[in-house]
Design brief:
This protein is an alpha/beta fold and 321 residues long. 45% of the residues lie in helices and 15% in strands. It has two domains: 194 residues, Rossmann fold (3-Layer(aba) Sandwich), CATH 3.40.50.720; 101 residues, UDP-galactose 4-epimerase, domain 1 (Alpha-Beta Complex). The chain is built from twelve helices and 14 strands. The strands form four sheets. It has a six-stranded parallel β-sheet, with helices on both faces. Strands 6-8-12 form a three-stranded parallel β-sheet. A three-stranded mixed β-sheet has the order 9-11-13. β2, α2 and β3 form a beta-alpha-beta unit. It is globular and about 55 Å long. The N and C termini lie far apart (48 Å). Bound molecules: serine (SER).
């Protein structure tokens, strides 16, 4: 049996960097090639092979696949919602060109399996907002959402037409203490922890009652590993699976932080990201993922808050040494 040889594109990013470390634990360091346009954390750079690569460089990516005899690709490179509103055309080409490169390599049998993350941003203002179903109205109003929804359609098309084994999850806001996200609308839920520890106060760019679906990084990584390990016939949805763990507002998150840091203060000053958040669901029905491949989350708001504060405190004290 040929074992997996993995390429992660976007391995220096928020999800990519933690995913790379987990996949290295599972498959062996040398079997997981990390790549990104920029270098990543020390852990990432020192634990296994790394290649500098632009996700939209078609011949460069094909060269990496050939050089390392890659079987599975995790395409984590993307421009997130807030930045994409500022650079629509750049976001479109990064998010779409990179996907076509990988789908075509899979179609040409150069690789066997693809993971490509989608997002709750595929939904829009006309979508049912609470417990958003797997299959429903999707009229995204953000550049990021339009690119992810289009990507989902192409994934399903390549599966139906060419048998490409592509697997995808619609991620909610992902919260972690190791690598910072960049340019997302859900980033407030990470910044708030940093500021709670550094200054004891935070000004949220979303209003106090803005409920959004969120997930702790551990759960996001587990979901990614699990869906890629499933026998192909169990992965019935080939556009992208709804996935959910918890939903909260900035006010509720601040309340959870206050339980651990009573003097913490929060203010609200919504900016352009409020309109993006208002167009997205506040909670997600992920029963298809739970039925098809036994998805189960572990972290809720309470243990998320505890783990985030603990993890960040440890890394801040290391920084100060
Ligand atoms: N976290 C992403 C964003 O805010 C959503 O997929 O853009």
């Amino acid at each position: 049996m040929i074992s997996e040889k993995i390429l992660i594109i976007g391995a220096s990013g928020q999800i990519g960097s933690e995913l790379a470390l987990r996949l290295r634990e599972l498959h062996g360091n040398d079997n997981v090639i990390a790549s990104d346009i920029k270098e990543g954390s020390e852990d990432l750079m020192s634990s296994g092979p790394f290649e500098i690569m632009d996700a939209t460089d078609e011949s460069g990516i094909a060269g990496l696949v050939e050089k390392h005899s890659i079987t599975d690709v995790y395409l984590m490179a993307a421009m997130l919602s807030a930045t994409a509103e500022k650079m629509p055309m750049k976001a479109w080409s990064l998010n779409m060109d990179s996907l076509f490169i990988i789908l075509n390599l899979a179609k040409d049998k150069k690789i066997k399996k693809v993971f490509w993350p989608s997002s709750i941003a595929v939904f829009g203002p006309s979508t049912p907002k609470h417990d958003t179903p797997q299959t429903t109205i999707m009229e995204p109003t953000t550049v990021y959402g339009i690119s992810k929804q289009t990507g989902e359609r192409w994934c399903e098309y390549f599966f139906n037409k060419f048998g490409v084994d592509v697997r995808s999850i619609r991620f909610p806001g992902i919260i972690s203490y190791k690598t910072l996200p960049g340019g997302g609308t859900t980033d407030y839920a990470i910044e708030i922890f940093h500021e709670a520890l550094r200054t004891g106060k935070y000004t949220s760019f979303l209003s106090e009652e803005t409920a959004l679906p969120m997930m702790f990084m551990e759960d996001a990584i587990k979901a990614t590993v699990d869906i890629m390990n499933e026998p192909a016939e169990n992965v019935k949805v080939r556009s992208s699976y709804n996935l959910s763990a918890m939903s909260f507002t900035p006010k509720e998150l601040a309340g959870a932080i206050k339980k651990e840091i009573p003097e913490f203060e929060i203010n609200y000053k919504p900016d352009f990201r409020q309109a993006i958040a208002d167009s997205w669901p506040s909670s997600i029905d992920d029963s298809a993922a739970r039925t098809d491949w036994n998805w189960k989350h572990e972290y809720d708001l309470k243990n998320l808050t505890h783990v985030m504060l603990k993890g960040l405190k440890e890394s801040l004290s290391l920084e100060n040494k």
